[in-house]
DNA sequence: CCAAAAAAATAAGGTAGATTAATAAAGTTG
DNA sequence: CAACTTTATTAATCTACCTTATTTTTTTGG
C-alpha cells in the first residue's frame, strides 16, 4: 500500500478497528495531493469541498478581520485533520483560510466520497467523532487559558507543548496564534532570555 | 411518550432519521433527572460518567484557576448537550465544573448505556458527530472573536446572539464568559447606555 | 554571493482593561 | 419588612499589552 495512505489507515486503526476488507475498500476513496509553500487548501469565500488529512508538512488556519489583520486560529501538522468545518458541513463560503507553511502532502476525501465511506464503514462516524471531540476539548481549554493566563504563560506553555511548531514557524505567527502582537512577543522573549540567565 | 424524552427524540430526528423501532429502543437507556439551583452536574475532580442533555433550565460550565478565579467556559440552555468531554471520554477527573443556574431538568445517558445505544443504532454516532462539530465550529469562531474584537464588541454580539441568557444570568457571569472583569463590563454598559441616548 | 524582501528586535508613548476599595442597589430569607 | 447576602456601580490608580516608527538580522532567490 502507498505509504501515505498507510499513514492514514494507521491513524484510523489507532482509534477504531477496521477489517482488512474495510481498509481495502477505503483506499479508492482517498485522494493524494501535494501543495507548495504558500498555497491555499481552503480560501476565504470558497466552499470547502473536502476533509483534509496532513501526511507531511505544516499549515495554518487563519481569519482576516475587517482591518485586514490576520488571526491564526490553528496550526496543522503531520497526522492532523484540518478544515473549515463550518464551510464543509454547510457548504457555505469559508470564513477561514488554510494555507501551507511548507511543501505539504495531504489526503483529501470529498463530501460525496465521505458519505459513501460512512455507508461502507459506519464505524468511521465514530472515528471522526472521536477526532473532533478531542479537538473540541483542546479548544475549550484554550478559551480558558486565554482568560486565565498571561501572554507570557501562554507563550511558555505553547513552546512546551508544540516545540516542533514553535521552532519551524515565524514568530509573528505564534504571536497571532496567542492573540498578541509580534512586538510584544519579541519583548516577552527578551524577558524570558534574561530571566534564564540570571 | 414522556414529554422530556420526546424533546430529545425530536432533537435527534432533526439531524438524523430514526425508525419508530429505534426510537422505542432508545427510551429505556435514558435517565431523567432534576437538579436544584446551585447544584452540580459535574464537579472538578470527579469523573463525568454521563452525557447530559438539558430539557429545561440553565447551566454554566466553569474553570477555577490557581488564584481561585472562576472562568466561565460555556453556558448551557434548553436543547443543548453539556459535559466535560475530556473527563467523559477518558474517564479522568474533570477540570471543569458544571453547575445549574436555575432548577434544571436533564436527560442523562451513562457511558455504558451509550455504548449499547451505538450498537443498537449506529446512526447515533453521526448525530453526536454533528452536534460536536457544530460546537467545535462555534468555539473556533469564539477564539477568533476574542482576538479580533474589543470587549465592547464581544458584549454587544453576545447579548445580540443570546438575549435569553443575557437577561437571565448575573452580569458578573457574562463578564467572566467574555474574559473581562465585572467592573469593566459595568463601565462598558454605562458607555453603551449613554451612546444610545445621545 | 549579492540584492531585495521578510522577519525580528528595540524603544517611546498610548490605551484597553485590571485592581482595589467604597457605595449603592437588588434579592433573599426569617 | 428588617437584616443579610448577593449583585452592580463608580471612581481612582495601575499595568499588560498595543501602536507607531526605526533599525537590525535573517531568509530568499536570481
Account of the 3D structure:
The structure is a homodimer of 198-residue chains. With 198 residues, chain A is of the alpha+beta class. The first copy, chain A, has a domain at 3-123: Jelly Rolls (Sandwich), CATH 2.60.120.10. Chain A is 51% helix and 22% strand. Chain A has helices spanning 3-13, 20-26, 85-90, 111-120, 123-148, 151-161, 163-168, 171-178, 182-197; strands spanning 31-35, 40-42, 50-56, 58-64, 70-77, 81-82, 97-100, 104-110. In chain A, the strands form 2 sheets. A 4-stranded antiparallel beta sheet of chain A has the order 1-8-3-6. The first copy, chain A, has a 4-stranded antiparallel beta sheet with strand order 2-7-4-5. In chain A, a hairpin with a 5-residue loop joins strand 4 and strand 5. In chain A, helix 8 (171-178) crosses helix 9 (182-197). The longest helix of chain A has 26 residues, at 123-148. Chain A is elongated. Chain B binds a DNA duplex (30 and 30 nucleotides) through residues 150-152, 170-172, 180-190.
Amino acid at each position: 500500500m502507498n505509504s501515505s495512505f498507510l499513514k492514514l489507515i494507521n491513524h484510523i486503526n489507532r482509534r477504531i478497528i477496521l477489517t482488512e476488507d474495510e481498509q481495502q475498500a477505503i483506499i479508492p476513496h482517498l485522494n493524494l495531493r501535494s501543495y507548495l509553500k504558500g498555497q491555499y487548501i481552503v480560501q476565504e469565500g470558497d466552499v470547502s469541498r473536502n476533509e483534509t488529512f496532513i501526511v507531511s508538512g505544516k499549515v495554518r488556519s487563519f481569519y482576516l478581520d475587517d482591518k485586514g489583520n490576520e488571526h491564526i486560529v490553528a496550526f496543522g501538522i503531520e497526522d492532523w485533520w484540518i478544515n473549515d468545518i463550518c464551510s464543509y458541513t454547510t457548504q457555505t463560503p469559508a470564513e477561514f483560510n488554510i494555507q501551507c507553511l511548507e511543501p505539504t502532502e495531504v489526503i483529501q476525501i470529498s463530501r460525496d466520497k465521505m458519505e459513501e465511506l460512512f455507508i461502507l464503514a459506519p464505524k468511521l462516524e465514530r472515528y471522526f467523532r472521536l477526532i473532533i471531540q478531542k479537538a473540541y476539548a483542546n479548544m475549550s481549554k484554550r478559551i480558558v487559558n486565554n482568560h486565565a493566563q498571561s501572554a507570557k504563560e501562554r507563550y511558555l506553555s505553547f513552546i512546551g507543548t508544540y516545540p516542533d511548531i514553535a521552532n519551524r514557524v515565524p514568530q509573528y505567527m505564534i504571536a497571532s496564534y496567542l492573540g498578541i502582537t509580534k512586538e510584544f512577543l519579541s519583548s516577552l522573549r527578551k524577558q524570558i532570555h534574561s530571566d534564564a540567565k540570571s
